[in-house]
Specification:
- The protein is an alpha+beta fold.
- 44% of the residues lie in helices and 19% in strands.
- The protein is built from 30 helices and 67 strands.
- Strands 3-58-57-56-55 form a 5-stranded antiparallel sheet, with no helix packed on it.
Length: 1920
């Protein structure tokens, strides 16, 4: 049914709520009527005991209320299941009492009772009668009245009631309600999905009872919502999980469809939440919060599943969008359960659909590569939903995950690459990114939120960024990039490896203490976060509230001794206590690429304590973890780590004895480990033919210990347990016995057999029905013969032999999901893909069987009610009483197993079952099923990330048995101080065990090889030493017998090869180091750009040692990037303007003219070269000697032509290099310009005739460039000084360190001196804090700890000093120095070094230890002590002198730098004054900028126009020159034509004059008309002037001489006459072409003249514009001169040039530099000297000019003589002057020869084709004759059949007319004959029709044969 029609039908159908209201009203009326009638009866019998007691009346009333209420609940409400009982009996009575207040009942015992109701629910008689509520209610009151009255006397009342009570209901405003009432609630138990059991199996429905969910599908879109509490709401498989964040309380709501939860939405009021489900025709369920009652059920919105739902801002509408296959968008009036609008959202997956918060009636949806904008609009047909698809344009297509509707209607969305897209009108207005085109987020933007006028975005990179909404809403671009750059206002990084997908805000009443900035975020990395987005100093860091597994649950195992369960699926291994429902501890893999993929908790046989957990990871690493308690805390520590595989570990298994651990991987290997007390030791591995999907060891009782391995390529391998073998070289096991089984599909054959069986059963059923039908006919008395009865039973119209499909076998075997042992050599397998739906029992063949040979299963049993969904996991319970199966669609099925559990399992035991959908049907494939150690709990893990726990017993018994119990943990243990921790494997590319073994073997081989190399090197070294000895001996020999060094070299190639290898190695190392260097440089640059402050140098104040002088640095900030950008832009503009002003446009004109002229001069040459190349490339048709002859002739002509062209080019080059008459030497021109610029002609800018030079003209761009340059110079000067001061500061710091070291040495020296010899030591100052301002903000943890320790030491020293009551030994500054020394580690090191050195030197010289108990010194010792005392004193004085000199030197340098700074301050102040001047000039120039731009634009425009005119002029002149060349070429052709005609006449031709007249005759010809196809043909239409073909003059010429020129005269050669006519036509064509070319040349000449005139006018306008610009520049310069410029001068710099007296007023003076004045005086003498030199040069050049003129005349005479000689030689050889170029062209013509050859070949080809065509014509003629003959035969047959038909029809008519009317029955033979005749007529009609069609077909083939109009008569009927 069409969804739209369905919705319409729902609208017009009567609503059940109206019926329910009628039912309530009728019940209420009946109660009132019964009570009144009862009172009337009692009143009529006053003597009865009932009438005397009011308690009886009250009891009767209560009984009526109770029974009528029960009737409504138990019977009448059941008639409409959709609207069931809302509340209990008390609520119902309350509603009845409320209605009693609005009802008045009037009862008359003599008349019909009339009831009048007043209230909101009003109904008329018609509605009640139609619904059938009133009558049914009255009929059901029989027992009610009896129970109520308790007396038979009341039957009269019952009879009166049954006879009918006329109840009339009136209303003033009748209103029809739609939808359920506002206070209506559904019974959730009627909708809730429950477990399913096999019919009549007796299996209890609570076999497994869900008790908790430990997971969270954090990868599901929008799977976190918030209700009041705060209560987090999210989907978990087939459950809705409600988690109170504060209290930790969990609530669960089960889905109704059992297919999963699609999406959840929260109502704006927070009182309702909608749950959109999955499944077949899923519902949308609206629940009330916090009562959790089912409020509304929305049906019919989609076919398969909902992907998103959203409430409107007002809460009255609900939008939903479905997933595949319909993708239906539906808008609901959810309170009325009514569909308002629906439309298909898109053809691909839709992620979201939301209402616009501001624009009512607008929605937005997004999904795979699309975003769509919807509007709810009223049209003439009603309310419609219109969608506009967003167009990406130039932007790449992207999946849209998150978006937000802006208040003005625009939409802002994210994209896959992390930027934001602003949509306006269905188009992308702008793409928003961060500065420098960085993306807003790294990865897709998942959500956008507007909060308090700010835009918040979250992304997969784990960042929350806050943006300015107004800036983004008004974003626009002006360039072509379509990108708008903006920086976020705030950002928060939640954590590493965090992927934020959704964020919801807590309401203000929920977090009053923390403010309204608390948000809760969904982390796809596995968690729920609490975020504080206040961005203030009190902001709390992100807190992770709950941690879950991210992605599929790949590992799940229960503890063998406690109520613990371990899970993994991401980088964590978590331990859950499922009694307290908390996470005890967790272990995190050190690498994000190492995700847990397999998990096993060893049993008590392996680990009696049950504290060991083994986990396999995706990078092939195997980790052994230990659970323990340390210091009261639970922790999971790493005990052992190995890498047995190079790829993902998929399965782990222990054998029954607990001695061997097997690991399977996707690298197609199985690794075995031995279990011992020290851990797990590798045994070895075997290679298998496929990736491992599961493993299982043989159970106890099997003869051999074997491992069953299932593979992904359909193979199952049985591996015998390995024994310890030699693995010293490799861990690969080669002697392990293995069996193979390759699965071959039999499902197609099974399905065919099942279909056959089904058809056979249906066939037997239909036969039984026909037998019953036959028996009924016989019972009715029909006479049925045995033959008819048998035919009726055998006739089965539905039994159609359908062709069975061929057996299908998949080309590649499907994956074996799980294999389990049944018996030795026999196992059951669960298959994936096509083979799902069955469990197969397979048997291993012989051990020698090839692994590639496929085998069919021994048998297979179907998995009932599975819809061919694969069983992904099979698991037996501990007692083997139940078999639990997990399906790919998330369903759990339990098979109770009967019989002895000790016996082997058989597939036939899988009969009755219990199942229930728990995980998501689409993404919740069950991966693990485990049972607790006591069998009381069961756990399932799925690919949807959910972990569900179930009770295996009743919930009450579980609670009672587990009361007071908690999970057992290992014995608490204290942390051992020296305990060694296990180093984990952090590198995912680390070596596996086998690779490490191979690497060790390789290293051993390398060591052996290295040993051999060392031995060889020693041998070579020995030989080298011998060789060096020989060289020394050779050097000692005399010179004449000494061998040269080259003679010792046996093979030079060896040395060259070694040098090359060395060079290559050095080059490789250099490249590697360059890469590393570049990498480190890049890292440094990034860090510097990220962390370096904008301040280039802070304020540093350096203090002197001895004085109070200080020098401070300049506080300099870095120049921003905009400064350099602006400077470059301004510099480019200034450079471009200078180039334009210097004649760049004129240069362009000259260049264009030269290019045009060059192109015009080279057109002919290029055309000829192109033609030559095309001729050379064209394939020749000539072959043999003829082709060779033609080629030689052409080559010779080409060579001669090339020689002449080369000679012509040389001449042209020579003439081109000839200078013009007005040529000037560039050096002279440059010298003249330099002289004009630097002659010393200084003009004042204030003078009226001053003209501003072009290069000195100033505008805003140049002035801005000067200002920027000045700023750069100021910055550089400050930076240079800061560098000097920083260097001086560093010197001071190093000096302080050195002086402190020297001071420590002095202290040590004075310690060994007597008190009288001690002197006061100098006080070494500490570095002042102002000298190192950067250290104020630098500190580390070590620094803080050291500071704390120093503070304690200072306090202790102060206390000790106070107790001692005095200062230090040396004047009280010792403590300060020691404290200062302790602050510096270098000083401490120097102190220790100096003290140790002094102590060592003294002890060595005194020869004794400095102890108190030494004996009395001797004289020698006293002398040595005296010497040592003198030495120490000298060293002390020297160190004191060094300290003093160092301080003095530093102070001197500081004073010198201070002096430099003073001078620099003066310069900087001058620069500031200059900057002020430049700013004033810039402001003034800005006032003139507009005018200057106008005038400059006019000048540039005029120059451009003039350049265009000049370019056009040059082009026209070039074209005119080309036309003249064309005319000359045509004239030459005309001359050659005349010459060829004269040559054709020959000598002594008597018809020469006649033929000349014919050739030269002028005739009028018709004009040629150019056809559309490009062809030319003569026009038939001519003018009246052209009608006469000859003039009178021509007629006179024709008759002159007695011959007619239109015909060949007798005796004249006709070929010669025809040739004359042809040549005449060519001559006329040439004359016409010449005339046309001359006309074109005249036109071009006129155009050139016009352009020249226009150029003159434009030149005058340009001069005028230049003059205006000059005047403007003068005016502007005058204004600039008015500005005051500060020039500070000292008095000694001022000198008056007139009377050498400085006047009191200098305002009228001109400042001129003294050196410039001296330069002008020197220039006078230089000019005089240059003048004399130029005169000498001029005289020499004049003499050279006269000599060159004489040489030219002599050369001209020589040329004339050579020309005369050449002409004389031509006359001797040819008899006339000939053109050598034309003479070369008169050679053999290759094109003519090729055309002749081509004509000959074409003639042969045409002749062959004509013969073929003629043979084809003959064959077609014969075919036409045959078809005509066949057509005639068919026409004759048609006539005969037509006559037969007519006769048969006449006979039938005659029989029907003569048949008697009274004959009622007919014999069967007659009926059969009649049927036969009718069939015969039909057959003949079909044959006639076929013949007609064939005749028509033959007629259309061209035969023109038509059938006769009527068939011929007289045909005999016996023909048939």
């Amino acid at each position: 049914m069409d969804p739209k029609q369905d919705s319409k039908s729902k609208e017009v159908s009567p609503k059940p709520p109206t019926k329910a209201r009628n039912l309530k009203a009728a019940t209420h009326i009946l109660k009132k009527v019964a009570l009144q009638r009862y009172k009337a009866r009692l009143h009529a019998q006053p003597d009865s005991p009932e009438a005397k007691s009011e308690e009886n009346i009250k009891e009767f009333q209560d009984s009526v209320n109770e029974n009528l209420g029960r009737q409504e609940i138990e019977k009448n409400v059941k008639r409409n299941e959709k609207f069931g009982k809302k509340s209990d009996n008390e609520d119902f009575d309350q509603r009845l009492n409320d209605q009693n207040e609005d009802c008045d009942v009037i009862v008359d015992t003599e008349s019909t009772p009339v009831v009048k109701t007043m209230g909101s629910s009003v109904y008329n008689n018609a509605s009640m009668t139609n619904n059938g509520v009133l009558s049914s209610t009255m009929e059901d009151n029989d027992n009610l009245i009896e129970r109520t009255t308790g007396s038979s006397g009341q039957q009269s009342f019952d009879e009166d009631l049954k006879e009918g009570v006329n109840i009339k209901m009136t209303s003033e405003n009748p209103v029809e309600e739609e939808g359920p009432p506002a206070d209506f609630f559904y019974d959730f138990e009627q909708y809730q999905s429950v477990s399913r059991v096999t019919n009549e199996s007796g299996i209890p429905s609570n076999l497994l009872q869900f008790f908790h969910s430990f997971g969270y599908d954090c990868c599901k879109r929008s799977n976190l919502h918030l209700l009041s509490g705060p209560t987090a709401v999210f989907a978990a498989g087939n459950l809705v999980h409600l988690l109170n964040i504060n209290s930790g309380e969990h609530k669960f709501i089960r889905s109704c469809s059992g297919g999963g939860i699609g999406s959840i939405a929260i109502h704006p009021s927070g009182k309702y939440f909608a749950v959109a489900e999955k499944g077949k025709k899923p519902h949308i369920l609206v629940y009330e919060f916090p009562s959790m009652k089912l409020y509304r059920v929305l049906q019919g919105g989609t076919e398969r599943a909902y992907s998103f739902v959203d409430f409107s801002p007002k809460g009255d509408l609900l939008a939903s969008v479905g997933s595949a296959p319909d993708y239906m968008l539906t808008v609901w009036d959810w309170c009325k359960e009514k569909i308002m609008l629906r439309s298909k959202a898109f053809s691909q997956e839709v992620y979201r659909v939301t209402f616009s918060p501001e624009q009512e009636g607008q929605l937005t949806s997004s999904g795979t590569t699309h975003i769509r904008f919807w509007k709810m609009a009223f049209t003439f047909t009603g309310l419609k939903l219109k969608g506009e698809l967003g167009r990406f344009g130039k932007t790449s297509l992207s999946d849209i995950e998150g978006y937000i509707q802006l208040p003005d209607g625009k939409v802002l969305s994210g994209c896959e690459w992390g930027n934001m897209l602003l949509w306006d009108g269905g188009l992308i207005k702008v793409e928003i990114c961060k500065k420098n085109l960085k993306p807003c987020h790294v990865g897709s933007i998942q959500q956008l939120v507007i909060d308090e006028g700010e835009l918040i975005t979250i992304g997969l990179d784990g960042y929350v960024r806050v943006w300015e909404l107004e800036a983004i809403d008004t974003a626009d671009t002006t360039d072509d990039s379509d990108k708008f750059e903006v920086e976020p206002m705030n950002e928060l990084k939640v954590g590493t490896d965090v992927q934020l997908t959704r964020m919801v805000k807590a309401t203000e009443d929920e977090d009053t203490e923390e403010g309204s900035s608390i948000w809760y975020a969904q982390d796809a990395g596995g968690g729920i976060w609490k975020l504080d987005l206040s961005f203030s100093h009190t902001t709390k860091p992100p807190a992770k509230l709950h941690s879950f597994t991210s992605g599929p649950i790949t590992g799940l195992a229960s503890s063998p001794s406690s109520h613990l369960v371990a899970t993994t699926g991401d980088t964590f291994v978590r331990i859950h206590d499922y009694l307290t429902r908390n996470i005890l501890c967790e272990f995190k893999s050190p690498s994000v690429h190492s995700r847990g993929t397999a998990l096993i908790w060893p049993n008590k046989v392996v680990d009696p304590k049950g504290t060991t957990i083994i986990c396999g990871f995706s990078d092939g690493i195997l980790r052994v973890l230990t659970l323990r308690q340390v210091d009261g805390a639970n922790e999971l520590i790493l005990n052992q780590v190995m890498k047995p595989h190079s790829s993902t570990i998929t399965s782990l298994a222990f054998d029954n004895t607990g001695e061997i651990l097997a690991t399977g991987s996707m690298d197609k290997t199985v690794f075995f480990f031995s279990v011992d007390a020290g851990g797990y030791s590798p045994i070895g591995f075997v290679s298998i033919p496929g990736e491992v999907t599961g493993m299982e060891w043989s159970p106890p009782g099997f003869p051999d210990t074997t491992l069953l391995v299932a593979c992904s390529n359909g193979k199952v391998i049985e591996i015998t347990a390995p024994s310890h073998t030699d693995t010293s070289h490799s861990f690969k096991l080669s002697d392990v016995a293995m069996k193979y089984f390759t699965f071959q599909s039999i499902k197609s054959r099974l399905r065919r057999d099942e279909e056959r069986e089904r058809k056979e059963v249906e066939k037997k059923k239909r036969r039984r029905q026909r037998e019953k039908e036959l028996q009924r006919r016989k019972d009715r008395g029909e006479e049925i013969s045995p033959e008819d009865a048998a035919a009726f039973l055998e006739e089965d119209p539905e039994d159609v032999d359908e062709e069975e499909e061929e057996l299908f076998i998949p080309p590649h075997p499907n994956s074996v999901l799980q294999a389990s042992y049944l018996l030795p050599g026999r196992f059951m397998a669960s298959m994936d893909g096509y083979d799902a739906g069955y469990l197969y029992e397979c048997v291993f063949k012989d051990q020698d069987q090839d692994e590639e040979v496929s085998s069919e299963p021994a048998r297979a049993i179907p998995v009932k009610d599975s819809s061919d969904v694969p069983i992904s996991r099979l698991s037996f319970t501990t007692d083997r009483r139940k078999l639990v199966a997990g399906f790919r669609d998330g369903m759990i099925r339990v098979y109770p197993l009967e019989g002895d559990p000790e016996l082997p399992f058989d597939l036939d035991m899988m009969g009755v079952h219990w199942d229930m959908n728990m995980h998501d049907n689409d993404t919740g494939s069950i991966t693990n099923i485990v049972e607790s150690y006591d069998g009381a709990y069961l756990f399932s893990g799925g690919e949807d990330g959910n972990i569900f726990g179930y009770h295996s017993l009743a919930h009450e018994e579980i609670v009672k048995s587990m009361e007071g119990k908690r999970a057992k943990l290992p014995t608490p243990k204290k942390r051992i101080v020296g305990e060694m921790s296990v180093d984990d494997i952090n590198d995912p590319q680390a070596y596996s065990i086998e690779d490490a073994k191979l690497k060790a073997e390789h290293d051993k081989m390398m060591r052996d090889a290295e040993g051999k190399k060392m031995a060889e090197r020693r041998r070579v070294g020995k030989l080298r030493r011998t060789f060096l000895g020989l060289l020394e001996k050779n050097n000692d020999l005399p010179e004449d017998v000494r061998l040269r060094k080259a003679e010792f070299e046996l093979d030079p190639t060896i040395r060259h090869k070694m040098e090359q290898e060395t060079e290559s190695k050095m080059e490789r190392v250099r490249l590697e180091m360059m890469w590393e260097k570049e990498k480190l440089s890049l890292v440094h640059r990034k860090l510097e750009q990220r962390f370096r402050s904008q301040l280039e140098c802070d304020r540093i104040i350096v203090h002197s040692f001895k004085s109070s002088h200080t020098v401070s640095s300049y506080r300099v900030a870095k120049l921003p990037d905009e400064f350099f950008t602006l400077k470059d832009v301004v510099e480019q503009r200034v450079r471009a303007a200078s180039l334009a002003s210097e004649g760049g446009v004129m240069g362009l004109m000259d260049g264009g003219a030269s290019i045009s002229s060059g192109r015009g001069g080279k057109d002919d040459d290029e055309l000829e070269e192109t033609l030559i190349e095309s001729k050379q490339k064209k394939s020749s048709l000539l072959h043999g000697r003829k082709a060779e002859k033609v080629a030689k002739a052409l080559k010779k002509a080409e060579e001669s032509k090339m020689k002449r062209e080369k000679r012509h080019k040389e001449w042209e080059e020579l003439f081109r290099s000839k200078p013009d008459e007005n040529y000037e030497d560039p050096a002279d021109v440059s010298a003249i310009k330099d002289a004009q610029a630097n002659m010393g002609d200084f003009k004042l800018k204030t003078s009226p005739d001053y003209v501003v030079p072009e290069h000195l003209r100033m505008d805003t761009e140049k002035k801005r460039y000067q200002l920027l340059t000045l700023l750069g110079l100021i910055h550089r000067a400050k930076s240079d000084f800061n560098e000097k001061l920083t260097a001086l500061r560093d010197w001071k710091l190093s000096s302080i360190i050195e002086m402190k070291n020297q001071l420590q040495e002095l202290k040590e020296m004075q310690r060994r001196m007597v008190k009288d010899e001690k002197v006061n030591l100098p006080n070494i100052p500490r570095p002042h804090p102002d000298e190192q301002p950067h250290k104020r903000y630098e500190y580390t943890r070590d620094t803080l700890l050291k500071f704390e320790e120093d503070e304690k030491m200072r306090e202790e020293a102060a206390a000790q000093k106070k107790r001692q009551g005095g200062g230090g030994l040396f004047g009280g500054f010792g403590d300060e120095d020691e404290g200062g020394a302790e602050d510096d580690p270098d000083l401490l090191h120097g102190r220790r070094k100096s003290v140790n050195s002094v102590a060592t030197s003294v002890a060595s010289k005194l020869g004794q230890k400095p102890t108190a108990g030494s004996h009395k010194p001797t004289v020698l010792e006293m002398q040595l002590a005296q010497i040592e005392k003198i030495r120490i004193k000298y060293q002390r004085d020297r160190l004191l002198r060094l300290i003093e000199e160092r301080m003095m030197s530093f102070d001197a340098e500081l004073r010198l730098l201070r002096h430099n700074k003073i001078n620099l301050d003066v310069d900087l102040k001058m620069a500031d004054l200059r900057q002020v001047t430049l700013l004033e000039e810039l402001l003034l120039l800005k006032e003139y900028e507009k005018r200057e731009t106008t005038l400059s634009g006019r000048v540039v425009g005029k120059r451009t126009e003039l350049a265009e005119i000049n370019g056009k002029t040059v082009e026209m002149q070039t074209r005119l020159e080309m036309k003249r060349r064309d005319i000359d070429r045509l004239l030459d052709r005309e001359k050659s034509l005349h010459a060829s005609f004269s040559a054709s006449l020959g000598d002594n031709n008597k018809f020469a004059d006649f033929l000349n007249r014919v050739f030269k005759k002028k005739i009028k010809r018709s004009k040629k008309k150019v056809m559309e196809e490009g062809e030319e043909e003569d026009s038939d239409v001519s003018s009246s002037d052209e009608s006469d073909w000859s003039s009178e003059e021509d007629e006179d010429d024709s008759v002159e001489g007695g011959f007619d020129d239109s015909a060949c005269p007798p005796g004249c050669d006709e070929a010669l006459f025809d040739s004359a006519l042809v040549l005449r036509e060519k001559r006329l064509d040439l004359e016409e072409q010449i005339l046309e070319e001359k006309k074109l040349a005249e036109t071009l000449k006129k155009d050139v003249d016009g352009l020249l005139k226009k150029a003159k006018v434009m030149d005058a306008q340009l001069k005028t514009a230049l003059a205006d610009l000059e005047a403007f520049q003068v005016e502007k310069q005058g204004k600039l001169n008015e500005l005051d410029v500060v020039v500070p001068l000292r008095l000694h710099q001022v000198e008056h040039v007139y009377n050498a007296v400085v006047p009191s007023d200098l305002s009228q003076c001109l400042i001129f530099a003294n050196n410039s004045l001296s330069g002008l005086q020197r220039r006078i003498k230089e000019l005089q000297h240059e003048k004399s030199e130029q005169r000498k040069l001029y005289k020499g050049a004049r003499q050279q000019h006269v000599h060159l003129i004489k040489n030219r005349r002599s050369m001209e005479e020589r040329i004339e003589q050579l020309e005369e000689k050449c002409e004389h030689m031509m006359m001797l050889k040819f008899g006339r002057i000939v053109d050598l170029d034309k003479l070369d062209s008169v050679t053999i013509n290759k094109n003519v020869e090729e055309l002749k050859e081509q004509v000959r070949r074409q003639e042969v080809k045409n002749t062959t084709e004509l013969l073929k065509r003629q043979r084809r014509i003959d064959e077609l003629r014969e075919r036409i004759t045959e078809l005509t003959r066949d057509n005639t035969i068919r026409l004759e047959r048609l006539n005969v059949l037509a006559n037969d038909k007519e006769e048969l029809e006449q006979g039938l008519d005659h029989r029907q007319r003569t048949m008697e009317l009274e004959q009622k029955g007919r014999k069967k033979s007659e009926i059969r004959e009649q049927h036969r005749l009718v069939q015969l007529v039909q057959l003949q009609s079909q044959e006639i029709q076929a013949l007609k069609e064939e005749i028509g077909l033959l007629s259309r083939k061209g035969g023109h044969i038509l059938p006769p109009a009527q068939p011929p008569l007289g045909q005999d009927t016996e023909v048939l």
